[in-house]
């Protein structure tokens, strides 16, 4: 499971997506769009930008930007297993999502 948050959101807006390690970032974006379909009604999954982070949930503020944290922009064909090589901390946000 991967904990996700849209940029500009606060800790109460963290959501979890289940994805297989063998799948890629493009599929992750599609799952995020499905999970947040009300918010992303007019956005294609391919338009989303995903950033790998490891942020304690209690440090999240709406003012947070990718410049404030160590964030790695993820390429659509990158495998989940190559992004998350270690076990992720359950109480952290793992992916920041940026919508156009």
From TrEMBL:
Cross-referenced Pfam families: Crinkler
Leader peptide range in chain numbering: none
Upper lineage: Eukaryota, Fungi, Dikarya, Basidiomycota, Agaricomycotina
Domain of life: Eukaryota
Location within or outside the cell: Host cell; Secreted
Protein name in UniProt: Crinkler effector protein N-terminal domain-containing protein
InterPro entries: Crinkler_N (IPR045379)
GO CC annotation terms, alphabetical: extracellular region; host cell
Keywords for the protein's UniProt record, in alphabetical order: Secreted
Annotated ranges, domain Crinkler effector protein N-terminal: 2-98
Keyword hit for Secreted: yes
